[in-house]
Specification:
Length: 386
């Protein structure tokens, strides 16, 4: 069953090399490496791609029309550069899936390219002396570092209102390194202990260093096409069962109606309405982890445990770590593999559902995955199955 008008599948996955370096990378080369890898993985030719979508913050990533020319594609039926819009890096996959399902295009390529300097590298910048317009009312919450201050406030408020402890957040970071240790692509592979998490540098109290993702130079891409076409291609198809977006009430980063969860509950309600999949069917999770608060809130919003119940459900990390009942971010995610944003969670869960790995790296008998991206009022999610 699918909410989409025709069945579609992810048939290709590609990555560039992932690195951490002070040298400015060639973002165009990173993008082409990932896109060419994804097209080849699917067993397609470049000129068979007729749709292309990316997400970018500004000038850090080449536009789809440049990628089109570089790949020698004569024309695109769908082209879209999502500028700071929607559920972060997950947006291109959601748009690509819905476009193919609607018949707008037949083979869609979605990519996300992120040079390291696009991430927050603990730079200190001067604030303006005067602020006008609506921002004058939000500057007191951390103008210039709004995301950091907001996720610090969410962390403090969650523990104050719902109970649990900051160690619950630490389990996300500790588990990320357990997974990244098994991932040859990951930039951070050394383990992190709970003591190291709790004593790590404070960014905005109580947000600490290990609560934040790790900026890298990298790109990833996926190819999505119809289920009918997928059956004749190289890889085992991974079907897109359902997709959804959500803003929640208020639709404001600072003043949304549900400060801790944003629109995630509304997003997942729509996600399940378009699917026969239930929370208990999910075998593996790919959840946006730009900050440790987000996977916790998504797990609860997805109904895998109740609101405020994460601390008990996670069982000291056993539930989400290698060998756990519901593995989380099996690449190490943005906290450890590196900051590929939401599309990196799609690529990893697709590989898990294909059974592409061996040993502890592979989730046994994985058939269903939930991927969710963004936070606050910019929420999106998809259910994948084989």
């Amino acid at each position: 069953m699918t909410v989409l008008s025709r069945e579609v599948a992810v048939v290709g996955v590609g990555y560039s090399e992932l690195t951490r370096s002070r040298e400015e990378p060639n973002a165009r080369q990173l993008t082409l490496d990932a896109c060419l890898s994804a097209i080849a993985d699917a067993g397609l030719r470049n000129d068979e791609v007729d749709g292309m979508v990316q997400y970018f913050h500004g000038m850090e990533s080449p536009k789809v029309t440049w990628v089109q020319r570089a790949l020698g594609i004569k024309s695109l039926d769908l082209y879209m550069d999502l500028l700071r819009s929607g559920p972060s890096g997950l947006g291109p996959a959601l748009v690509a899936a819905t476009a193919v399902a609607a018949g707008v295009c037949e083979v869609a390529l979605a990519y996300r390219t992120l040079p390291q300097n696009e991430g927050n590298n603990a730079r200190v910048t001067a604030a303006p002396s005067e602020i006008e317009g609506p921002e004058q009312f939000t500057a007191i919450y951390g103008n210039g570092a709004a995301i950091l201050s907001q996720y610090a406030l969410k962390k403090r408020r969650r523990v104050a209102e719902l109970g649990g402890s900051y160690e619950d957040y630490g389990l996300i970071s500790v588990t990320a390194r357990k997974w990244s240790a098994l991932n040859d692509r990951a930039v951070l592979r050394d383990p992190v202990t709970m003591d190291e998490y709790m004593s790590s540098r404070v960014i905005v109290d109580p947000l600490v260093l290990y609560d934040c993702d790790y900026p890298i130079n990298g790109s990833c891409a996926v190819v999505i096409t119809t289920a009918e076409r997928a059956r004749d291609l190289r890889q085992k198809p991974v079907y897109v069962d359902s997709v959804s977006w959500g803003t929640g009430g208020g639709a404001d980063f600072y003043f949304c109606d549900d400060y801790l969860y944003g629109g995630s509950f509304q997003c997942t309600k729509k996600l399940y309405e378009g699917s026969s999949i239930k929370p208990q069917d999910i075998d593996v999770l790919g959840l946006y982890d730009g900050f440790t608060h987000l996977p916790i809130s998504w797990i609860e919003a997805l109904g895998i445990c109740g609101r405020g119940e994460f601390g008990d459900w996670v069982d000291g990390g056993k539930t989400i770590e290698p060998g756990g009942a519901v593995p989380l971010n099996t690449s190490g995610g943005m906290l450890a593999e590196g900051r590929l944003q939401g599309l990196g969670h799609v690529t990893e869960t697709v590989l898990q559902l294909r059974g592409a790995y061996t040993g502890e790296r592979q989730v046994p008998d994985a058939e269903v995955a939930a991927v969710a991206g963004g936070g606050s009022t910019a929420c999106g999610a998809m259910l994948l199955r084989v």
